[in-house]
Amino acid sequence: MRLKLPANYKIPPHWHPADEHVTVISGTLNMGMGDKFDASKGNALPVGSFAVMPAKANHFAFTNEETVIQLHGMGPWGITYVNPADDPTEK
Q: What is the pLDDT, as a whole number, of residue 76?
């Protein structure tokens, strides 16, 4: 899937049931590992970067500019938020 994220967008800590492959198409994606969102622990992934998040690894992401990423992996794909209150489908 391809996602277009606006500037200053935050994806709270979450995990996936399978490995997630991320390719940065445009902009910069900042990704960090852990149970809590901490921008100071984010690593900037510029255009052309590729990252793999292992299954069930808690991680978060954010942007400072409009960013397009491509996600792929073996399904089924899902997202589980560390804090269930962060799940936008429940709001």
A: 87
